[in-house]
Write a structure and sequence with these properties.
- It is found in: Nucleus.
- Belongs to the replication factor A protein 3 family.
- The structure is a single chain.
- This protein is mainly beta and 120 residues long.
- Helices cover 14% and strands 39% of the residues.
- It is built from two helices and six strands.
- Strand 3 and strand 4 form a beta hairpin.
- The longest helix has 13 residues.
- It is globular.
- The two termini are 27 Å apart.
Length: 120
């Protein structure tokens, strides 16, 4: 069975409040070269975020990516995993920046968003 590590979905503003915690953040990366161990991107709310990897990047990374890792000081993420989105010959819709920022805000104020009450 796969183990799922709880993490907060954040944008650049909420990253600062999550230092030391497991997070997921979407970044727009201009270009990160194969073999690099760090790169930067802009969060959905326009904050420049630096990503530090423990292993070199395997392939070129561009466009919107999801970084799963641990928030660190100075708008930095210690990345554990990168989820890339690529075009497989089909038209890809643009990333909904406003919707994602609303989701981050909603999740930051809801303590238990999936709580449905005590078991019956």
């Amino acid at each position: 069975m796969l183990h799922f590590e709880r993490r907060s979905i954040v944008n650049g503003a909420l990253l600062k409040r999550s230092i030391g915690q497991s997070i997921s953040i979407h970044l727009k990366v201009d270009r990160a070269e194969s073999g690099c161990k760090s790169f930067s991107g802009k969060s959905s709310d326009g904050v420049n975020v630096q990503v530090l990897l423990s292993e070199p990047l395997n392939g070129v990374c561009t466009g919107w990516v999801e970084i799963i890792g641990v928030a660190a000081p100075n708008d930095t993420v210690r990345g554990k995993e990168i989820v890339t989105y690529f075009n497989a010959g089909e038209k890809i819709e643009e990333f909904d920046v406003d919707g994602h920022n609303m989701l981050c805000t909603l999740l930051s104020v809801c303590k238990e968003p999936f709580y449905t009450g005590p078991p019956m």
